[in-house]
Specification:
The structure holds two protein chains of two kinds. Chain A is mainly alpha-helical. Chain A contains 13 helices and four strands. Chain A has helices at 2-28, 35-60, 68-85, 90-114, 119-137, 147-154, 167-185, 187-197, 199-204, 209-235, 246-256, 268-288, 294-319, and strands at residues 142-143, 156-159, 163-166, 237-238. In chain A, strand 2 (156-159) and strand 3 form a beta hairpin. Chain B is mainly alpha-helical. Helix content of chain B is 68%, strand content 5%. Chain B is globular. Classes of the chains: A mainly alpha, B mainly alpha.
Chain lengths: 320, 346
């Protein structure tokens, strides 16, 4: 029982922080406390939610993936180039880019697992490689005018009280649901937690460590590519500079969401709250008006730091 | 040459980086017979080789600082952001005000003398390094996460220092750092030599180098052996910050401005690549400062070659990414075991 309470504590801190930030925003700014503003958190950060969900599994397994931002950029670039310059149908392009993202994740996973290269080095190399491939396609931004993308970007699903959400939000919620199922209700998920807790023990228990680790990175590559597709709908362009620094945002969302950076402990749903906190900070800074958007990055960086330090305290008190 | 002496030569420190560098230079010489030509113009040396050395100077300095961090089994991916911060501090303190003076064009105007500007910029950069060092050594954060925080927020800080604008520097004494010449040789090379001399003395003439390697090989064992692992790790990150700060001054002096967004962009890749190419293992332990400077020279030569061949410069990023992959795979235990088995079997 105490163990369970211990594990739920970081999540509780996260939810409380979100409530506090949201309350502060609602108190300070007129029009902040509206359903549409709340839904906009999801609309504006759907891609972050998708990529952070994949990142959650990676971090739960004790690894890290720095390539997500670049893979998102590469996805927007490949989609834009194929749809606009080659005239390919989105029905072909979207599955293709998803396969591409999964393949990038697969290769990095194989390098990490079979050559024992540290995850941050393999994914750092992947990060530069994917960015480089973007520039190889074009150094300029490619605007997407394809009717399918334009229509889907403009499409709104009406909700009660005159509010609406986009398709992107639905995608993000589905990915989240799938990841929750994978992490908490399947053998694969339990293996991920076991690897994160102690890889050696997991191996001695006869769990399929190698396969699971490679699959985790593959799944994250898929999520990054899907986030890239969502991002393409959101921005309607492909650009090599898209999603610069997104890896920090994604890792921050996961860690703020209560997942331990050392792996083995955390909840996928926490990441949703991490993303919501990110959205709240972003919206507060927009409502404030006179602050540069750089402050979002700085505040998120500091929050990430605060949660990392908090985790150290938790870890120490548990050991004591 | 016998096989044994050949093997002794190829396992020597710095053999492979030098071999790669020589091959690259040889290719350039074949492609452009005038590549090695060095002439004297306006009282200083001039030529492609001098150009490569000058352009590689900032990278050589960062690579040396990063080498020490990597030797402790750490990493610092915030060096690019620190380059931007250091340049921003210098540019903000000089002022960026253009005052025209009769005839010669621009007057040298600065709000603070260089003797104040340079220590301040380097001080801020060292603080950045100390921040990383404190997070890693005292708070026990993973190096990649600790420095990722500064990588993400550092450019924001640089933007705040310069108010989100690109500040142009109109103060010619500052240009000397990145563009000037002393005794006919680029001034920046003297800075590289000074940094190299200090670091080499510190690590090879005192026990510090041994301590750093011990921490990288086994942090727990080194602590049990009485090495103050935390203090040394902290100092190493601070040193790396200082090196990035010096490089930031060279970069901003070179382009005569400070751009919070783009100064030192992707420097972290180049620096890591330089260290890896130089022969220092990313798994920590033994390190070579000379190798890292050679690595930096290889990267700059490669970039120059790619420009000269006429391939789009963006391709370099792909090549560099691939090289990191290949080298880190080659350094892995599995490949070493395979090579070892192959050597034993015949």
């Amino acid at each position: 029982m105490t163990d369970r309470r211990h594990r739920l504590l970081p999540l509780a801190v996260t939810v409380a922080l979100f409530a506090l930030l949201y309350g502060a925003g609602a108190y300070h700014f007129d029009g902040f406390f509206s359903l549409q503003v709340f839904l906009n958190f999801f609309i504006d950060n759907a891609f972050l939610a998708v990529t952070a969900t994949g990142m959650t599994l990676v971090i739960l397994s004790g690894g890290i993936d720095l390539s997500v931002g670049s893979v998102i950029a590469l996805t927007t670039m490949v989609s834009a180039a194929l749809v606009e310059h080659r005239g390919w149908s989105p029905a072909v392009v979207i599955p293709l880019v998803l396969a591409m993202g999964s393949a990038i994740g697969l290769v990095m996973g194989l390098v990490i697992q079979y050559f024992r290269v540290q995850p941050f080095i393999a994914t750092l190399a992947g990060m530069f490689l994917a960015r480089g491939l973007c520039y190889l396609i074009s150094i300029d931004s490619i605007t997407i005018e394809n009717p399918f993308y334009a229509d889907l970007a403009a499409f709104r699903i009406p909700l009660p009280f005159d509010t609406s959400i986009t398709i992107n939000v639905v995608v993000a919620l589905v990915v989240l649901a799938v990841a929750i199922y994978l992490a908490h209700f399947t053998r694969f998920g339990r293996t991920v937690y076991a690897i994160g807790g102690n890889e050696q023990s997991a191996l001695l228990m006869g769990l399929p460590v190698a396969r699971t680790k490679v699959l985790v990175y593959t799944f994250n590559g898929f999520c990054s590519a899907l986030a890239g597709v969502v991002f393409t709908f959101y921005m309607l362009s492909g650009y090599g500079l898209h999603a610069q620094g997104m890896e920090l945002d994604a890792i921050a969302a996961v860690v703020i969401g209560g997942t331990l950076l050392t792996g083995g402990s955390g909840y996928v749903v926490g990441t949703l709250f991490g993303v919501l906190i990110y959205g709240t900070i972003q919206t507060i800074i927009t409502f404030q008006g006179d602050l540069s958007s750089w402050w979002t990055k700085i505040v998120i960086g500091l929050l990430l730091l605060a949660f990392c330090l908090l985790q150290q305290v938790f870890a120490r008190s548990r050991r004591a | 040459m016998t096989a044994a002496s050949l093997r002794r030569l190829t396992t020597k420190d710095g053999f492979w980086p030098i071999a790669v560098l020589v091959l690259l230079l040889a290719y350039n010489l074949i492609a452009d017979p005038g590549f090695f030509a060095i002439s004297v113009r306006d009282g200083h040396l001039y030529g492609s080789l001098i150009d490569i050395l000058n352009r590689a100077s900032s990278l050589m300095i960062i690579a040396m600082g990063l080498t020490l961090v990597i030797a402790t089994r750490g990493i610092d991916i915030s060096v690019g952001a620190v380059v931007a911060i250091s340049g921003a501090v210098a540019a903000a303190m000089i002022g960026g005000e253009l005052v025209l003076s009769g005839g010669t064009g621009m007057a040298d105007v600065t709000r603070y003398p260089l003797a104040v500007v340079i220590p301040c910029a380097l001080g801020v950069a060292t603080l950045c390094g100390m921040w990383n060092g404190a997070l890693v050594s005292w708070f026990g954060l993973q190096p990649i996460v600790a420095t990722l925080i500064l990588l993400g927020t550092g450019r924001g800080v640089a933007q705040l220092i310069t108010n989100g604008q690109i500040v142009t520097i109109y103060y010619s004494p500052f240009y000397v750092i990145g563009n000037g010449f002393l005794l006919g040789i680029p001034f920046s090379l003297f800075i590289v030599a000074a940094v190299a001399a200090v670091l080499a003395l510190l690590t090879r003439k005192t026990a510090l180098g041994l301590f750093i390697e011990a921490i990288g090989v086994n942090p727990v064992a080194s602590r049990l052996a009485g090495i103050r692992a935390r203090g040394i790790t902290f100092a190493v990150y601070a040193m790396c910050g200082l090196c990035a700060g010096i490089a930031g001054l060279i970069v901003s002096s070179n382009v005569k401005s400070a751009d919070g967004n783009n100064a030192g962009l992707l420097f972290e890749l180049d620096a890591i690549l330089a260290v890896v190419l130089g022969g220092t293992s990313l798994a920590g332990g033994r390190f070579t400062l000379l190798g890292s400077t050679l690595g930096a020279l290889i990267i700059q030569t490669l970039t120059t070659t790619i420009y000269a061949v006429g391939v789009a410069p963006e391709v370099t990023l792909v090549v560099k990414g691939l090289v990191v992959f290949v080298v880190s795979i080659l350094q892995s235990e599995r490949i070493k075991a395979l090579i070892g088995a192959a050597r034993r079997s015949p």
